[in-house]
């Protein structure tokens, strides 16, 4: 028998340790004391990590923009880039993209030729990153990076005029058939599909984006996109949101505006997340969207007219799309925040980090860095302020979840060019890791460890994961989850999604003192588009390190 009295005593003791760690910051807000921590990984990676994508081979690709000036890392082999249209330097022998090896904590330069400033991306089912748009000579570029071993010297392949329209501040979403939809961009009230169906395709009009533009303030750039279980898209721009049938180019449903009238998209720059999709219940999945933070209405104009920096928004809205009459349920964050990054954690909690307490996105547009992360617990709707402050991460910072459960954080450059001296928030080239409380040794006794796993998970088919725990297992507290890695930039983690899978059985191997869990793959490609996912086992709220699986 797996559960014993001793098991329950140890488990209860572990939970008690966590409970005792929940204290107050003196203002009535809870935070977890001494369970979370920051680690400086590298003081400089040579560039400021404006964009990040975790790849399925354990690497993270990062890049900023080619017209920031000369970076602090040279291109390999004496290579140089000549660009007569570059606004900073025409002849540049420095790199503006790097490949980071998580295991060895090392990096190497990559050669990107066209300008990636404020671009977007998504990963194809085969693991290749497709990166689209940017500025100047990069505005119609499509770039591809296919992962390889760290020493194999794979690099960017670029197609400078591939896109049908200019894409600067656009958003990408992987689709159920493995294609990518690219939506919006500055003065682009349309969308297109990658790969293009033919060379004559010019994309499709999307008037919703024109309707949600605040003139020169815009406030609808980097629209929030989430693929829904029915195959349609949830689109949020400014204060409005819809369910959009991209195949027929029609709005299926429009929701009430988020209360308060404050815009949430760039440059007001809140963030959004699709809460975990739960396949363990014998009912239809009920998708729920969360939108948090941003700048108040008029905040961008207020900064540009040099009147000061308006305090950031402190509200979050949750919208359950399947309700007969959906309406936003509003909550208040303990720390107001603009330009924050929202990421799903393996525990199904949401971490909010980076950003500022006043101002908006844009050059020199924000003040009061918010250095403490906040973790939101969707089940009981509770916020916890984390105890350890980090360094300021302002405009052009980013964050991604790593398979080992840490959060990788980098970037911050609120200046037109690289600027390291005599400014309030210097360009930051460093790379940090944040360790959420669940990585504390306090929980090692109940932490599952994946030993082996099926590498391929098929829709509606069972698969196996072999694992161990140091002391005991409580089966009722075990779950299996897959999490798609995000392309993160400008406060939005594109393509991020979690699916909680149905657990079929758990068996114990007495000889090896290990376990085998049998689980059911996701039901459809609309719930989990094909591609690489991080698979986690979560036991009593404590996650394993992730294992890569391919959904197909």
CATH topology of the largest domain, anyone?
Answer: Methylamine Dehydrogenase, Chain H
> Helicity, in percent?
under 10%
The average pLDDT score comes to: 93
The rounded distance between the terminal residues' Cα atoms is 35 Å
Tell me the overall shape.
Answer: globular
CATH second-level architecture of the largest domain: 7 Propeller
Q: Spans with pLDDT under 50 lasting ≥5 residues?
A: 1-32
Q: In percent, how much strand structure appears in the residues?
A: 35-45%
Number of helices: 3
Class from secondary-structure proportions: mainly beta
- The CATH superfamily title of the largest domain: Galactose oxidase/kelch, beta-propeller
Instruction: Using the CA coordinates, give the radius of gyration.
Output: 23 Å
In total, the number of strands is: 46
Major beta-sheet overview: 10 strands, mixed
Domain Galactose oxidase-like Early set: 447-551
Pfam families: Glyoxal_oxid_N, GO-like_E_set
Domain Glyoxal oxidase N-terminal: 50-438
Protein name: Aldehyde oxidase GLOX
């Amino acid at each position: 028998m797996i559960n014993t009295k001793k098991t329950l005593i140890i488990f209860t003791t572990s939970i008690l340790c966590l409970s005792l760690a929940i204290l107050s910051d003196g203002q009535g807000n809870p935070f977890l004391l001494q369970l979370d921590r920051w680690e400086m990984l590298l003081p400089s990676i040579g560039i400021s990590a404006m964009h990040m994508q975790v790849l399925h081979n354990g690497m993270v690709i990062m890049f900023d923009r080619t017209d920031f000036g000369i970076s602090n890392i040279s291109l390999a082999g004496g290579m140089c880039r000549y660009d007569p249209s570059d606004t900073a330097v025409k002849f540049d022998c420095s790199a503006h993209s790097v490949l980071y090896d998580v295991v060895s904590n090392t990096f190497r330069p990559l050669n990107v030729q066209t300008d990636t400033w404020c671009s977007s991306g998504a990963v194809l089912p085969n693991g290749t990153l497709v990166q689209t748009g940017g500025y100047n000579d990069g505005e119609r570029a499509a770039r591809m990076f296919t992962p390889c071993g760290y020493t194999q010297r794979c690099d960017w392949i670029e197609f400078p005029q591939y896109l049908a329209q200019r894409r600067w501040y656009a958003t990408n979403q992987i689709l159920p058939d493995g294609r990518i939809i690219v939506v919006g961009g500055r003065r682009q009230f349309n969308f297109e599909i990658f790969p293009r169906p033919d060379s004559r395709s010019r994309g499709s009009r999307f008037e919703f984006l024109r309707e949600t533009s605040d003139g020169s303030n815009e406030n609808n750039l980097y629209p929030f996109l989430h693929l829904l279980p029915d195959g349609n898209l949830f689109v949020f721009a400014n204060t409005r949101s819809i369910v959009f049938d991209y195949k027929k180019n029609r709005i299926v449903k429009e929701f009430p505006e988020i209360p308060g009238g404050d815009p949430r998209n760039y440059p007001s720059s809140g963030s959004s997340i699709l809460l975990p999709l739960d396949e363990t219940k014998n009912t239809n999945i009920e998708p729920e969207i969360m939108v948090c933070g941003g700048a108040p209405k008029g905040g961008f104009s207020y900064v540009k007219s040099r009147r000061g920096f308006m305090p950031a928004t402190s509200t979050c809205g949750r919208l359950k799309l399947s309700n007969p009459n959906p309406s936003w349920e509003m909550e208040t964050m303990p720390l107001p925040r603009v330009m924050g990054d929202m990421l799903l954690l393996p525990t199904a909690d949401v971490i909010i980090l980076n950003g500022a307490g006043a101002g908006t996105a844009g050059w020199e547009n924000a003040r009061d860095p918010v250095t403490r992360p906040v973790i939101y617990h969707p089940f009981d709707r509770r916020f916890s302020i984390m105890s350890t402050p980090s360094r300021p991460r302002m405009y052009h910072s980013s964050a991604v979840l790593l398979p080992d459960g840490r959060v990788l954080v980098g970037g911050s450059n609120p200046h037109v060019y690289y600027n390291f001296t005599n400014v309030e928030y210097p360009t930051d080239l460093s790379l940090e890791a944040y360790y959420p409380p669940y990585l504390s040794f306090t929980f090692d006794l109940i932490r599952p460890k994946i030993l082996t796993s099926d590498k391929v998970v098929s829709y509606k088919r069972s698969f196996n994961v072999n694992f161990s725990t140091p002391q005991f297992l409580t089966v009722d507290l075990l779950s299996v989850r897959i999490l798609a890695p995000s392309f993160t930039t400008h406060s939005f983690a594109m393509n991020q999604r979690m699916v909680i899978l149905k657990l079929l059985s758990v068996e114990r191997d007495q000889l090896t003192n290990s376990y085998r869990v049998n689980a059911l793959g996701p039901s459809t490609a609309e719930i989990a588009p094909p591609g690489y996912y991080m698979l986690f086992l979560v036991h009593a709220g404590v996650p394993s390190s992730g294992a890569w699986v391919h959904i197909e």
